[in-house]
Known about the structure:
The structure holds two protein chains of two kinds.
Chain A: H1 2-12, H2 14-44, E1 47-49, E2 52-54, H3 60-67, H4 69-103, H5 109-116, H6 124-135, H7 140-147, H8 162-186, H9 190-198, H10 203-232, H11 235-240, H12 248-256, H13 262-294
Antiparallel strand pairs in A: 1-2
Helix pairs in contact in A: 2-13, 3-13, 4-8, 4-10, 8-10, 9-10, 10-13, 12-13
Chain B: E1 2-11, E2 14-24, E3 29-33, H1 40-48, E4 55-60, E5 63-64, E6 75-78, H2 90-94, H3 105-118, H4 134-146, E7 152-156, H5 164-181, E8 184-189, H6 192-198, E9 201-206, E10 209-214, H7 216-221, H8 226-231, E11 236-245, E12 249-254, E13 258-263, E14 275-280, E15 286-287, E16 297-308, E17 312-319, E18 326-331, E19 344-349, E20 355-357
Parallel strand pairs in B: 3-8, 3-9, 6-7, 7-8
Antiparallel strand pairs in B: 1-2, 1-4, 4-5, 9-10, 11-12, 11-14, 12-13, 14-20, 15-19, 16-17, 16-19, 17-18
The structure holds adenosine-5'-triphosphate and magnesium ion.
Amino acid sequence: xxxxxxxxxxxxxxxxxxxxxxxxxxxxxxxxxxxxxxxxxxxxxxxxxxxxxxxxxxxxxxxxxxxxxxxxxxxxxxxxxxxxxxxxxxxxxxxxxxxxxxxxxxxxxxxxxxxxxxxxxxxxxxxxxxxxxxxxxxxxxxxxxxxxxxxxxxxxxxxxxxxxxxxxxxxxxxxxxxxxxxxxxxxxxxxxxxxxxxxxxxxxxxxxxxxxxxxxxxxxxxxxxxxxxxxxxxxxxxxxxxxxxxxxxxxxxxxxxxxxxxxxxxxxxxxxxxxxxxxxxxxxxxxxxxxxxxx
Amino acid sequence: xxxxxxxxxxxxxxxxxxxxxxxxxxxxxxxxxxxxxxxxxxxxxxxxxxxxxxxxxxxxxxxxxxxxxxxxxxxxxxxxxxxxxxxxxxxxxxxxxxxxxxxxxxxxxxxxxxxxxxxxxxxxxxxxxxxxxxxxxxxxxxxxxxxxxxxxxxxxxxxxxxxxxxxxxxxxxxxxxxxxxxxxxxxxxxxxxxxxxxxxxxxxxxxxxxxxxxxxxxxxxxxxxxxxxxxxxxxxxxxxxxxxxxxxxxxxxxxxxxxxxxxxxxxxxxxxxxxxxxxxxxxxxxxxxxxxxxxxxxxxxxxxxxxxxxxxxxxxxxxxxxxxxxxxxxxxxxxxxxxxxxxxxxxxxxxxxxxxxx
Lengths: 295, 358
Ligand SMILES: Nc1ncnc2c1ncn2[C@@H]1O[C@H](COP(=O)(O)OP(=O)(O)OP(=O)(O)O)[C@@H](O)[C@H]1O
Ligand SMILES: [Mg+2]
């Protein structure tokens, strides 16, 4: 009896209503995310035998994924490129976020943030092709440099290699990095900066002793936001990466499609996910430490 | 120590400060007192170097501060919000400014401990800022500034966020501290009582202008304008007419009180024209409880309202010939009765009770 009355009470409570309201979209998101993920996990333990699937569970796909030189190399390259993209994006985004937060007058800030997101209105592919036009053999950069007489022949190291991948992705992800850093900078109490100055710090010292440490949660959040999707990107490397710019995601795509080895593709995908998860957890843990010391 | 030379500050069309001049002496507890928005913070920030004057100049220790950034000024500030660095613990906060100076780790730790001890926070070194109360944060802010031994310590309403009891305790502590370290304090407050109890001298600021700069006693006893008198404590104002100017003072006709001879020192703002205002503090009037033969002039009136405060009683007394009743205060003693509203009362005053204002 007390149980049922407690249930009735719970049904009328705020928590229940909140849960009832949130659960349909939550369930939707869960099925849309969990179902494919479960399928990939299952696949990764099966074996492709030409046109039939052998469904006896096996670790063989993982063994291949983690031991064969090509996959190791691709995974390392992916991690390296993602790390570089993350670093480049954060380092390029910080000054922009800083400028908007500290130099732009408060009335204009919204407008600036709005302008920064404009590149997002154009399609992702469109932006990649634009970079091809800019960096290509007969592209804008080479054209102008040759026109100015600075170089004799078109530069070839700027397209169809890892540099181009890093450049294109950094540009693509910049707004995602600028926003969290901007928010973190906005949250810094300006009197802290004045206090630092008052206590004897010049602008550079003040930046490293107050501004940067306090913006760190935003920087780490930006890093996670950029790092996670970069590992999974296969369109950019294929379009601007050239043969040496291909990444693990391209290999996963290859296994699922042309190579017709979905189980190996699945094992590679799950492996990549695991690595990304571990790295993200480290970042989030760092972030928590910063936030806790501020709370 | 600090010379403020005809300083004005404009923010667009707003004139936050208007030709302010003042001299602040060495080792002085100097207060800037005024209502909200009068420009106190603006002046303090210009002394600290966060803002530059639109006109005029500020000298500290004889040197012009024109274009000198805050980190090169011999001043330190205690911010109204305390501005404790949230990512550093108490010891790191206090030692923040020592970074730029020479000193070994051990030496710095010793100084931090000493300064924390001075502000009553001994042993708080490892606390995180979020685990501090308002009063403790305020002390950390104080320690952080004092450890640098500045020539001038600037404090922007440091006590306004504290509850009454803590505020009164901190007032005394701050005053003792200031005497002990001998640093010049420039203290911003909008609380006149706080300014009176703590300061050596006070600059009263109204709408960006210094209305009066004086010791607490002079400011209270002899405000130069009606507005200053009203702002600092309670004051009765009565219409007055100048009858004659004599060598020793003025002969005036005050409504309700009749003819009064006022000595010259009781007209600090000077006298111009014949229409004047007489200002009288509540405690400068006395109620007669017996028919003692004490010199002074008297008038008969009636108690309109009685406000009993424990140690004091405030009366509203209606006198013949004045519209608004006079406020009068009496210290309560063992043999004095508290008069009920409606009772007849005899009011006595002397020549020094009355202040002449233009
Ligand atoms: N940065 C600014 N831009 C524009 N106007 C300002 C600025 N700072 C101050 N003012 C204006 O200058 C005047 C004085 O401000 P100030 O902060 O010095 O007042 P205050 O005496 O410290 O008041 P309070 O007791 O409320 O702190 C106010 O009218 C304020 O609106
Ligand atoms: Mg202020």
